[in-house]
């Protein structure tokens, strides 16, 4: 769902950082304070030509949406508790026309959305398990090689997948994602555990998917999972594995994104060998929804290059 690192991070970290991409001399500033961002979600599950399917992946029956009929593959990986339709409706609708040689696959990760029951178990390796499941799904769909587009938690899953299966991932696009959990972030995760303190606009989309009573339990379990990684793995989600990524990688960033501390963007750029950066100067966390047409064009251009 969301990386809810809101104005508290701005106050604690200042959110004033200049990032320079060494290969392109691109720089930008993120200034403080940053207002809290709200994730926009559309629950409409219709798009011309899109098909909803299910496949058995390991022990899970995985629900996914398939659009386009090309012979190349790209998988869209949603954020925490996110689904294909809540997180990627503009991409399911728009990318097939821009990528006529691709099939666009958007999934509900195991334990989320329609890929239940059962609910996800947030073990210390749940990102690795999601990455393995995504790879298996694409293999079952006939793609030995494919591209990955991941937002927030889905971007983390994409980073893990590209590091674990470097020969299979052709290209990688991530935004709103981090490869480690800082002490500051661990404290904030605990602070956002109680969803009753969220605005209705932030709660209601997830309540529609998981139910008013069940959503708080699942969100709290997600918080526990992140804190477990922080304690048991010293915050290392996949930072130690970034060096294994071979795929050309595009990091897209909203310069006003309050959901991740600013350190993560230069860290990804400096630790993934072949990276590029695109910045939305006024973008926040949900740039692919807020600027859907521009975002889709950028992603398509990168995947086709």
UniProtKB/TrEMBL annotation:
Concerning Gene3D superfamilies, the annotation shows: alpha/beta hydrolase
**Mind telling me what this protein is named?**
AB hydrolase-1 domain-containing protein
List each copy of the AB hydrolase-1 domain by range. 74-203
UniProt superkingdom: Eukaryota
Gene Ontology MF terms in the entry: serine hydrolase activity
């Amino acid at each position: 769902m969301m990386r809810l690192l809101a104005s508290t991070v701005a106050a604690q970290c200042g959110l004033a950082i200049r990032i320079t991409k060494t290969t392109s001399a691109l720089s930008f500033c993120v200034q403080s304070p940053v207002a809290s961002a709200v994730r926009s979600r559309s629950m409409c599950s219709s798009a011309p030509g899109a098909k909803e399917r299910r496949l058995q992946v390991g022990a899970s029956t995985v629900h996914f949406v398939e659009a386009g009929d090309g012979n190349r593959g790209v998988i869209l990986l949603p954020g925490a508790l996110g689904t294909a339709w809540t997180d990627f409706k503009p991409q399911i609708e728009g990318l097939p026309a821009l990528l006529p040689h691709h099939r666009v696959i958007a999934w509900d990760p195991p334990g989320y959305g329609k890929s239940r029951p059962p609910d996800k178990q947030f073990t210390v390796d749940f990102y690795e398990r999601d990455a393995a499941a995504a790879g298996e799904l694409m293999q079952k769909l006939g793609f030995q090689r494919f591209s990955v587009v991941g937002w927030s938690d889905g971007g983390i899953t994409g980073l893990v997948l590209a590091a674990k299966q470097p020969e299979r991932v052709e290209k990688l696009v991530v935004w709103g994602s981090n490869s480690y959990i800082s002490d500051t972030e661990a404290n904030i995760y605990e602070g956002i555990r109680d969803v009753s303190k969220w605005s209705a606009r932030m709660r209601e989309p997830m309540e529609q998917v998981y139910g008013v009573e069940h959503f708080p339990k699942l969100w709290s379990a997600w918080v526990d999972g992140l804190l477990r990684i922080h304690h048991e793995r010293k915050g290392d989600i996949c930072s130690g594995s970034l060096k294994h990524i071979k795929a050309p990688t595009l990091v897209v960033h909203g310069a006003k994104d309050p959901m991740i501390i600013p350190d993560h963007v230069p860290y990804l750029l400096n630790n993934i060998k072949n990276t590029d950066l695109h910045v939305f100067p006024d973008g926040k966390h949900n740039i692919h929804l807020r600027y859907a047409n521009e975002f889709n064009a950028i992603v398509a251009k990168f995947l086709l290059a």
